[in-house]
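Hmm, how's this folded?
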Amino acid sequence: MSLSAVLVFSGSACLIAAMYVTAATLLLVAGGGVLLGIGCAGLFMLWQRYFASLPPEPGNLRLIVGTALAPLVYFSLYLVPIALTAFLVPLVFVPLCGLCIALSVREMRTDQPMFEDVPRQHPRVYRQAVADYWRSALCVGSLAFAGGVIRGIALLHEEIATVVNSASMVGSLVSAVVLLVLWYRMSFRFGLTSVFRVTYPLVITGFLLLPFLGGAYLNLFAAFMYMVFSLVQMLMMMQCAQVSRDRGINPVFIYGFFGGIAYIMQSMGFLLGWVSDFVSMGGREWLFFVAVVSSWVLGLTLLAASGTLFKPLASKGTVSADPIEFLPLAREGEAAIVHAGEEAASRARWLTDAGERGGRIAEKHGEGTTDARRGVGADGRCSAGGDRRCGAETESRRGVREGRRGTGAADPERPLPKARRNRPSASEGAGVIRDRTSKQCRALQERFGLSSRETEVMELIARGNSMAAIAERLVISENTVRTHAKHIYTKLDIHKRQELLDMLHELDG
């Protein structure tokens, strides 16, 4: 944090010095830009670690609220004399940002697998993440390329530069407010590739019309393009945070992967927009050159996002890129207390009924329910001191339980057949009901607000997979699987697999 703050401060100081040392203006501006870029990237990574450390709902909520507040701060600077604004960044905003990060670090849960993991410890996990998310990163990079083109054009036309800066802030505010309103009304999920497919027709049409319309249209298109780019930047941070939580990988790695592609392509777009003023194609206007190249880049990205291009680079694993999830927000005040009380009472009745029914089944078949449930650990294996039969589960009881539930739960000690291990995971077809177990798990997901990844892990636990088998299936570390299992059991207010099976069984009743 200290190094990033020093770099931002030094970059701002160089830009201030450029206003007074005219002989070295170009050198100071170039050096200041490099220092500011590196320093801001470092601060972004620190914030990414913070948002990723939080649960999905508060993490996304704080990111959206922060994005909405940034434009308000930006426009408030117009109330300050221009000569003073140059000094506000290094003397006020950089120390304030550092203080906010220092205070936020106290809330970070650094005991999570994502902070303990490094690529060289689990290279397969990181390779799988790159294979699953390179399309999403390319979509972000393509929109960043289009934004960079507009920024390069704005550098040569001062009237456009003002519009671009203001539109960027307005876009951040509008996108944040719209997301908040939608989120308070409903839960939804979407991916970055979906965002690109929706915006692609508008963006490419805008570029194709660019050579034929006047300067007023150029201003409007520049405003629209940076509004889209501001939205995508916010969604990119949310996607990176979710990948860190779901896959248990280092947030700096995944943000560096997404951000590296986005900023490199944005720089390429900036150079295209800047040099286009000096390029002539058969005597035509320079905007033709911009339109042709930009449309070509956007078209290739659309083919890649659709899976019809670069097929050798496609993921060969059993998982795919998970969309960003906006689960229902917790309500504050009395309503939340009443809701929590009702959920707790409902869970208590559910578990009580499950215990009584399990006791009746056990008595019918000569089984000891108490000893049966005492010997099963959180991962479905026999706990220390527990009954070595994993709950004294005889063939007769297992047949009755599986026959009534219809889940086909396997013996936890027995690995799944190869054909079954290779079945598609829930992330490849979220919401797809394959059998009764899938339907029961989706019901629990809706009732208790589980994420798609937690539902996926819960279903695999219910099918009798061990922690190692689940980790192999989902291409994540065992520590990450245990973390997901802990979150699942906390939300369901249970402590072991047998209680999960009882809850699933009671859904049929």
